[in-house]
Amino acid sequence: MSFFNDKNFDFIMASAVLLVLAIPVGIANIYLGYVIGEGPCALCWWERIGMVVVGVAGILILRYGLKACYIAAVLFGATYGIFMTPRHASFSLYRDVGMGFGGDIFGAHTYTWGILVYWVVVVAMGLMMLFAKDKVVYGDISRSDTRIKPLSAYSKFVIALSLFVILSNAVQALISAGIPPYSGKGDPERISLNNTWTSGVWKRFEKPFSFVGANVVEDPFIAGEPRDISVKFNQDPSAGAFVDVKPALSVKNSFPLPFETKGIFGKGVTSGLAYNAKNDTFGISNTEGGVYFTDANFKEIAHAIIDKPNGRNIKKAVASTFVGDMLVTMGFNKTTFAVKPAQNVDAYHEWRYFRESSGGLESAWNFTVRRF
């Protein structure tokens, strides 16, 4: 009896659909999206679309057999994903180890896993085609009529789960990206009914065509060059490289903080302390994204917890310093975020960048989006 019979083939194909579509897309959609609140960017959606195409083609093969058009759909979907995933990951390839967007699984950020998934699809389909001379597989490819195959209980479960995941993704896409002419975002906020939609992507067509897209940087400053750039430099040699360099501070006294610092989900420990001589205040950071502003006696003035799962990957915040009134905090992976006091805080930006805020604080580095 041949191993590659109808029963075993259907089990392998159903398992492939489960591993390519239901499990990875389901985890990204339900756990990362609805539970953690991580918002998928436009390229995340494009990666998911490729997995959905491959998975749906696999479902059609389960139902109607191994037809050439379904094989082509699997290969086209995998080819699309093999292009789209490295394109997505390339935005962070220049960063150091551990730096990137969103969370990671086994050390690899979620948007890089598609590289493995899509290549596995191609290799698996190639291995299947090695059995094309088997009469069961060859019979499906060569037949001209449509054969409706019976589904096992396992296949029905996988198909039902996959269709649920696809529907759930459609709902999530509507919430986060909106309907045309709105589109996905490169740096989205967390999944919520408070999401805003943007149509700013269409402005890219107003720019001259370039193979580097939006990745055009301004020419650097070169002393003596008659070139006007946006960043101004002090060209007086007598000013020196540093201003007001002072000797290192020595510890005069120490005592425990009168409050407990907390980061996202109530986690983390106190990790950074900065002093603002301008107004005699302190800034304190927590390893999980909590920042606190206090007076000279360490009485809390305001605090906020950044939306860590969305945006740049802040592994653990380890140090803080004041730049003016702005408290800049850096993670051990050299990724930074900044918070500053503000009189009039935009309600959307407060919600967009903070999971919690006592008020009077805003992210110093905001991204403007069009709201409806």
Topology summary:
Blueprint: H1 6-36, H2 42-64, H3 68-90, E1 104-105, E2 108-109, H4 113-129, H5 135-142, H6 153-176, E3 270-276, E4 281-286, E5 290-294, E6 300-306, E7 317-323, E8 326-331, E9 336-341, H7 347-353, E10 354-357, E11 361-363
Antiparallel strand pairs: 1-2, 3-4, 4-5, 5-6, 6-10, 7-8, 8-9, 9-11
Helix pairs in contact: 1-2, 1-6, 2-3, 2-6, 3-4
Transmembrane segments: 12-33, 45-62, 69-91, 111-132, 153-175
Subcellular location: Membrane
Keywords: Membrane, Transmembrane, Transmembrane helix
Please tell me about this protein's structure.
This protein folds into 2 domains: 6-190 and 197-206, no CATH class; 264-363, no CATH class. With 372 residues, the chain is of the alpha+beta class. Residues 368-372 have low confidence and may be disordered. The protein is elongated and about 85 Å long. Helix 2 runs antiparallel to helix 3 (68-90) and helix 2 (42-64) packs antiparallel against helix 6. The chain has helices spanning 6-36, 42-64, 68-90, 113-129, 135-142, 153-176, 347-353, and strands at residues 104-105, 108-109, 270-276, 281-286, 290-294, 300-306, 317-323, 326-331, 336-341, 354-357, 361-363. The strands form 3 sheets. It has a 5-stranded antiparallel β-sheet. This is Disulfide bond formation protein, DsbB family. It is a multi-pass membrane protein. Keywords: Membrane, Transmembrane, Transmembrane helix. The chain crosses the membrane at residues 12-33, 45-62, 69-91, 111-132, 153-175. InterPro entries: DiS_bond_form_DsbB/BdbC, DsbB-like_sf.
